Each structure stands twice: as C-alpha cells, then as structure tokens.
Amino acid sequence: MTDPPTDETADVDAVDTDDTDDTDEARDGVGVGPWTGEWPDDPRYDAELLAHGDRRNVVDRYRYWRREAIVADLDAHRHDMHVAIENLRHDFNIGSVVRTANAFLVKEVHVVGRRRWNRRGAMVTDRYQHVRHHQDVESLLAWAHGEGLAVVGIDNLPGSVPLEETRLPRHAVLLLGQEGPGLSPAARDRLDLVVSIAQFGSTRSINVGAAAAIAMHTWVRQHVIDHAT
Question: pTM value?
Fold first, then answer.
C-alpha cells in the first residue's frame, strides 16, 4: 500500500506482538482483486490498490480508498462518544476496545496511565481510529470537562445505576477500568455517573472488552438508532 503513516495514533505507543497487519487478510482470501475496467478518476482511490487488489480489513464502501481518505470520511461522521480505558498494568484488552470503537464510529479512544499498549487485538483498526493518551485520570477528567463531556464510569460498584435503565449523556466519555480491579480509586469518586451492566451468573465481573462493547452499543442504540427511527 502506498499510503504514508498517518498521525491518528501519534499520541500513544502501540506495541506490536505479532505480524498482524493487512497482509493477513490476503492469506485468508478476504477482500477484492485488482480493479476491472477503467480506473476511477477520484483522488480518494489508491493506484497500487487498484492495480493489485485490496485485502484490508475495511467495509466494501472503502475498497481501494487511500487510508487518509478513509480516515477523513470517518472523521466527517464520527459520533459524539469517546471511550477511555485505564492502562495501569499494560492491559491486553485495549486492542479489542479500539477495534470495537472503530466499528461504532467512536470519536476517540483514550488510553489513561501507561502510554504503551498492545495493538494485536485491534486487527489494524487503529490505523483508522484516533487514540489519545492521558497521563492519569485527573488529566483525562480535566480534558473531558474542558470539552464539555460527561465522564461515565462502567463498573459494578456500590451506588452504580443499571445501564439498562439509564439514558447515557450524548456528549460523553465512557471510562472503563483495568481488567480485574475495575475503575481505580482515583476515578471512582470523581465521575459524573457510574453505570453497571446486569449479570446473572456466578462471575463477579465480565471482561473489560465485552463491557466496553455493551456500553458503546447502548450509547449507539440510544443516540443513533433510536434517534433515526
């Protein structure tokens, strides 16, 4: 692919732990071959992809597009939702959260704490998703409130309210804690709202990547799907 690296993840250090990239899809037979017929006269298209095919992890409408063109189009339609995750122990769920955030057209993912994170679970979607780093919860909260965003914690803490019964703020940051301990003490008492996800089995909590997906989908259902209908 001819696109130069973009700066959407320039504010964090993503750690590669394997060779996961767009070429993996080519081995799986995903994507499309070379463009057939006359090439489109459109600057969004990439000449190399038109000539050799597009095996990237993108939806069909973005086939053959340059990476910068895809990011620009996503930026024009991103939702008013941000997602943040505390990274105190090098959480391996961050890649999964980034991938899901891309699927739900989240405006930005915020990594709080340790700057480095494992991008394996992102499956290359971090190339199209803006990711921002904050040194600690205090800096995240200061940034969010300066932007007029409510910060909503996702955790089954005492005093939390059921996500299933709560209208999430439209302009919001959904904050998830570290896998295991959940939201840090620094975050718990300083949030605008804390919601819990209903559980019915024996486990104390669900995986933070799964919790993030449920929370993001709830926001999209409330502010995008229900609004459209």
Answer: 0.87
